[in-house]
Design brief:
The protein is mostly beta strands. Helices cover about 0% and strands about 50% of the residues. The protein has strands at about 20-25, 30-35, 50-60, 60-65, 70-75, 75-80, 85-90, 95-105.
């Protein structure tokens, strides 16, 4: 069996608070990670050196990117340019949020 064959929904668990980040793949200038969010997201404003493309696989969430608010449902995705402040404002409890994030470095 190929060790690169996996399922994004294996080893899923719910969290009481915060988020869990699991690196799925690192290749050259790209890092892909799965993020599981509780319904009490960390109060962190991210301002990353890399570009990020993120898709919400499960749940509902509200993000603030720069000054704009986005209400996301399962299947919604967006691109966040490097050096753009962004924050997870709200996440659902049932179902909890599962994300896929692709970080693109220069």
């Amino acid at each position: 069996m190929n060790n690169n064959f996996k399922n994004i929904f294996t080893e899923i668990f719910s969290l009481e608070k915060g988020e869990d980040f699991k690196e799925i793949l690192r290749c050259k200038n790209v890092v892909i990670e799965r993020i599981i969010s509780s319904d009490q997201p960390d109060n962190i404003i991210y301002n990353q050196i890399q570009d990020e493309w993120v898709i919400l696989l499960q749940g509902n969430a509200t993000l603030q990117v720069a000054e704009k608010i986005y209400d996301l449902t399962s299947g919604d995705y967006l691109f966040i340019s490097a050096n753009t402040p962004h924050q997870v404002i709200k996440t659902s409890k049932d179902p909890f949020c599962i994300w896929l994030a692709i970080h693109i470095y220069d």
